[in-house]
Amino acid sequence: MEKSPRLYSELVAFCGQSGQWRDVRHVQTLAWMVNGLIQAEGVNLPAWVPFVQSRAQYAQSTQRRFRRWLGNRRIEVAPLYGPLIEQALQGWGRHTLYVALDTSMLWNQYCLIRLSVVYRGRAVPLVWEVIEHGSSSVTHAAYEALLEAVPALLPAGVKVVFLADRGFADTDLMAQLRRLGWHFRIRIKASFTVLRPGPPACKVEDFALAPGRAVFLHNVAITAESFGPVSLALARHSRTREPWFIVSDEPTSVHTFTEYGLRFDIEENFLDDKSNGFQLESSLVRDPEALTRLCLVLAVATLYLVAQGTQVVAQQRRRWVDPHWLRGNSYLRIGWQWVKTALARGWELFTTLHLSGIPDPDPSRASASSPTPAPPVTFTRTICYVPT
Predict the structure, then answer these.
(1) Residues contacting 272, CB < 8 A, separation 6+
(2) SS3 of 35, please?
(3) Three-class SS of residue 292?
(4) What is the pTM (predicted TM-score) of this model?
(5) What is the distance between the alpha carbons of residues 318 and 173, in angstroms, rounded to a whole number?
(6) Which of 37, 112, 297, 356 is most buried (CB neighbours < 10 A)?
């Protein structure tokens, strides 16, 4: 039982940085839960119990402590997690910061809505909410307030580019992003109306896109409401033949597709929450507010482990815990391996909470033959249309 107090004390200091806790016992319970999540390697309240040291004699008492914490309406997620992610991003620098929005279903009954910062092949949560909703498709009203909460967490003056899939292609969202001063790259549906000076209105799908062909349209409007001006990047991949229709507030180019492709990193974040990491769906919690607090436990663990992994790579210690010659694991997994090994061998745990905006110094590669960085998106033919 020597492991728990060490990691627990680190997590108490880590979680307590927000200074917003109404009761010190609340932050202590959170630290024990994150400690249990990391060491038991999954969301399982009974499995966390052996990693807790307290005066409770019965395991059921500790488990009830966790459940009371999850059901405590006095524990508000945003003011507790916000200062942690804000501090982590303070050293981002002048690099572009990509924010991705997506949803994930839990047991086909609850919808997790999350905004995350894209970070080195994965994503780190910014804000989130779980609602009782039988579909992954949500209206703008469901996440409008979440978006409004994000700017206060980001470094002043940094360029923010918002990324989202076609399920969020909504002109109300685009208008909100403009009010926030953000740029955006959002995938739109083939049925979207395109309005250009001169030619009659048409649908996105009306542009003949053979595989390997891309079309870029600047200063156009979209939808029957003539929302604009915006730019479009339309293409069909030469291999998969999948169409990509992207709307942007800035002039588009082939690079627009590369930027939009960063959106898929939030899907990896959801995978870390579920089958590839924390096993969220093994939880027996079935209440949206309690699940929102449970996601706080996951978010704190994610931020802590990614920050650990960042320091491991920065100090060139990755191969101390990663047997692979080339990096194939995520920063979260590297940080997780570091924490477990450090606890077993008496190594230091990094205290710096820092996410860097500089390019990844050790990009992930599947094998020695895999190129790094990934080759740029290319097309055999491109056409650019700029209205006069």
Answers:
(1) 122, 278, 302, 330, 332
(2) helix
(3) helix
(4) 0.92
(5) 40
(6) 37
Spatial contact of 312 and 330, defined as CB atoms under 8 Å apart: no
Position of tokens 């981002």? 92
Q: How many contiguous H segments (helices) and E segments (strands) does the chain have?
A: 12, 11
The answer, yes or no, to whether residue 373 has pLDDT greater than 80, is no
- Of 151, 128, 152, 122, the C-alpha closest to 307 is 122
Reduced to 3 states, what is the DSSP secondary structure of residue 216? strand
3-class DSSP state for residue 57? coil
With a CB cutoff of 8 Å and minimum separation 6, the contacts of 303 are 84, 85, 88, 124, 125, 353
* φ, ψ of residue 325 in degrees (nearest 5): -65, -45
The CA distance from 69 to 179, in Å, is 37
pLDDT over 80 (residue 386): no
d(CA 78, CA 73): 13
What average pLDDT does range 342-350 have in this prediction?
A: 92
Structure confidence at residue 29 (pLDDT)? 93
User: Whose structure tokens read 């802590």?
Assistant: 304
Lookup: tokens for 86:
């804000």
Span of 16-20, 120-124, 266-270, 291-295 with lowest mean pLDDT: 16-20
